[in-house]
Amino acid sequence: MPQDAAPAPTPHRLRPLPMVIFGSRWLQLPLYLGLIVAQGVYAFLFLKELWHLVSHAPELTEQQIMLVVLGLIDVVMISNLLMMVIVGGYETFVSRLGLNGHPDQPEWLDHVNASILKVKLAMAIIGISSIHLLRTFIGAGNVGAPENTGYTEMGIILQTVIHSVFILSAIGIALIDRLSQPATDRPH
What we know:
The chain is mostly helical. The protein has one domain. The chain is built from 6 helices and no strands. Helix 4 (114-143) runs antiparallel to helix 6. The longest helix has 33 residues, at 62-94.
């Protein structure tokens, strides 16, 4: 044993109540497994939409192709959000994944904690909302009157307001996270 290496701490046995409380984190496992199933559904939806795009491309207008591609991007962004919640949430709240040194370990997983996860999730939600808002604007602006596309003026305004609230919420979460860090931990 090298002189610099400290002996591994011996785990101490928890009292019954703390053991039950700490062990209850495993109740989240079915939730994360359910999100994996949901991701499978999104993968199926992506392939179905991609097949629709490829098989009908000659008869689609440029605008229709753009809307389908934006839908595909939306599915990918939601899938990315699911992965952040599944991997980051499991690692933060349930158990370590033991990925240290694995070549495919996500870079952000090295320093994940609940605060960082919240900010990343807020940014992902803003990205998803941006895609939805862009699809709404394209659908309402290029097809004709909003009543012909299923978009009402009020619906478009509300979607824009909701997107703005997402942005303000993310800014608030990031500011609170930054202010809650000790001054020595803040990047310069």
